[in-house]
Design a protein that fits this description.
477 residues; Immunoglobulin-like; Purple Acid Phosphatase, chain A, domain 2; 7 helices; alpha+beta; 2 domains; six-stranded mixed β-sheet; globular; binds fe (ii) ion
Length: 477
């Protein structure tokens, strides 16, 4: 027996002859699943939530409408009557894990203040290692343990060693645009690909332009419940660690900045949206910025900028003082990009820099409203890096590969999570576009070495995982 593990935990982890993933007796109380994020070479952060029931509410009141048809809930609506609700319940949570070293965390109490969710840091892990885990919950401190949820994740390879790494990147999942009753094809496709990790780069939920419009913390949390209790998401995220970024719709409202007001959403605020995002996904600790880097072996490092928390109002006049990233983040970005010796440096901004975008938009670096900062960053990349910084983005509801005619910066938009959510493109731009497809899907990145050269293969995939476009960058060394 592994020290500290019960017979039942041993079985759940596949130790002692049991098959990994086999059903564990007892009803689970984790209808919103679990998520592992913020993996480093030595640590990972596990998000857990105890729920009242083992499944989301299947037969409740359905609220699905988009844009101008989206409405507020009637004031007396109880969230637990809504389809897809997965109400939290008080209790205790912990993680038991195996992969060398093995261990079990302390029990942590969960309560209403943080929506019955908790995050536990696993430390002292081994680099580039597949871990398996069991999330346990129970109602009382010394009570019976509920049915368990099993899963797995991988720690990152160390910076000094070349390693083959694969990544899946997705964005823009709207509930009323799901492409199957249990969620999204794309999550099943990603689960089948089994990447080292996934990047969900914003618009994880839509507070403002799909029904019900979030005007309270309870409604905002309902958006997370109904999305992350979908079986395709629960199953995929149990087996793949990830990093989550937020964008406008999953912090507040369309094209949001911190001082923006949205009368329909009152009294819900941007600050509440910021807090709920950190509550609902594995994220850096409160007080630490959400912008961070992910280094996965010798050949790839990713920068995950934060695109909403530091921006000046979109409608300010453009110029040197106007910013999306803010001075501090921009200094961090430039300094850390210069300091990195990774073969490929990947800038995963939630929003586009190259675009092109449609002319009616004014909230990103591909729009005229932020042209000054856009040129500053593109010129910086051109003069400091020999083409080995590549831009990726979510947010736009079409898939594309474009190249900036001014600086040669390559950009890949991963596309929306379903075909139903695609649209809004300005159309094919022959000057910039190498690829342009107005349907859903995701992007996959694969880094590998062969015969003294290192390649980065970028593929656009449709929602079923079929490759619809591929581009490979190669460098010697
Ligand atoms: Fe979006």
């Amino acid at each position: 027996m592994v020290e500290g593990l019960s017979r039942r935990q041993m079985l759940a982890l596949g130790l002692g002859g049991a098959v990994y993933g086999a059903a564990v007796p007892g009803e689970t109380h984790q209808s919103t699943g679990c998520k592992v994020g913020e993996m480093t070479t030595r640590s990972a952060r596990v998000w857990m939530r105890r729920t009242a029931a083992s499944h989301r509410l299947a037969n409740g009141i359905v609220r699905k409408a988009h844009n101008k048809d989206a409405r507020l809930l009637p004031p007396d609506t109880r969230i637990e009557t809504l389809e897809g609700s997965a109400m939290g319940a008080p209790g205790y949570v912990r993680v038991v894990y195996k992969g060398g070293p093995s261990g079990a965390t302390k029990w942590l109490e969960v309560n209403e203040a943080a929506d019955f969710a908790a995050q536990i840091n696993l430390s002292g892990l081994r680099p580039d290692t597949a871990y398996r885990y069991v999330v346990e919950t129970r109602a009382t401190r010394n009570g019976r343990v509920d049915g368990e949820l099993t899963g797995g994740f991988q720690t990152l390879p160390v910076a000094g060693r070349p390693a083959a790494v694969s990544i899946a990147m997705l964005s823009c999942q709207m509930y009323c645009h799901m492409d199957r009753p249990d969620g999204f094809h794309l999550y099943e496709s990603i689960q089948r690909d089994a990447p080292h990790f996934l990047l969900s780069c914003g618009d994880n939920v839509y507070y403002d332009n799909e029904d019900p419009i979030a005007n309270s913390e309870a409604v905002a949390r309902y958006h997370w419940q109904r999305m992350y209790s979908l079986p395709t998401l629960v199953n995929s995220l149990r087996h793949t660690g990830g990093y989550w970024q937020k964008d406008d719709h999953d912090v507040f409202s369309n094209d949001a900045w911190p001082t923006m007001a949205d009368k329909r959403m009152a009294p819900f605020t941007f600050v509440q949206g910021q807090r709920i995002f950190r509550e609902q996904v594995p994220a850096p600790l409160t007080g630490q910025p959400l912008y961070r880097t992910v280094r996965a072996g010798a050949d790839i490092e990713l920068w995950l900028p934060e695109a909403r928390d530091y921006r000046t109002p979109n409608d300010d006049p453009d110029g040197p003082g106007k910013t999306i990233w803010g001075a501090e983040q921009k200094a961090w970005l430039m300094k850390s990009l210069r300091a990195s010796n990774a073969t490929w440096k990947i800038l995963v901004n939630p929003n586009p820099i190259v675009g092109p975008d449609r002319t009616t938009k004014n909230d990103n670096h591909a729009n005229p409203g932020f042209a000054y900062e856009s040129r500053e960053i593109r010129e910086f990349l051109k003069s400091n890096f020999d083409g080995n910084v590549i831009s990726f983005c979510g947010d736009r509801h079409w898939q594309y590969h474009s190249v900036d005619p001014e600086t040669g910066l390559h950009e890949f938009g991963c596309g929306p999570a379903s075909d139903e959510h695609a649209g809004g493109t300005p159309g094919l731009d022959k000057l910039r576009h190498r690829f342009h497809r107005v349907l859903g899907g995701y992007a996959s990145l694969e880094v590998s070495r062969e015969g003294g050269s290192c390649s980065l293969r970028v593929r656009h995939r449709d929602v079923k995982g079929v490759t619809v476009y591929s581009h490979t960058f190669t460098r010697k060394g």
